[in-house]
Design a protein that fits this description.
single chain; about 100 residues; 5 helices; about 55% helix; flat
């Protein structure tokens, strides 16, 4: 990395970065949710499960709620979908 800026210096700077920052979320997208967000996500899911348990669906064990997906669980659009969207926008803009 050069004489003025060593790997040890870069590592010591990285340690000081926030856990929800871009560097850490690039490595692990789930770190975008801090502890507060993770607790809120779990509380919201538990409340939906409690409400679901009072329904007829729960008696037949169907349509159970799913938790809000974590950033790593979200599906990225495929290349084909992106190109179709780009073609659609281009057609609107008259390109």
């Amino acid at each position: 990395m050069g004489v003025a800026f060593s790997h040890a210096h870069a590592a010591s700077l990285c340690v000081q970065l926030p856990r929800t920052g871009r560097v850490y979320t690039a490595i692990n997208p789930d770190l975008a949710y801090d502890e507060r967000m993770q607790l809120l996500r779990q509380i919201e899911y538990d409340l939906r499960v409690l409400a679901w348990q009072q329904t007829e669906d729960a008696r037949h064990r169907r349509n159970a709620p799913d938790p809000i997906p974590l950033p790593s669980e979200r599906v990225e659009p495929s290349h084909d979908q992106v190109m179709r969207d780009k073609a659609f926008v281009d057609s609107i803009l008259g390109r």
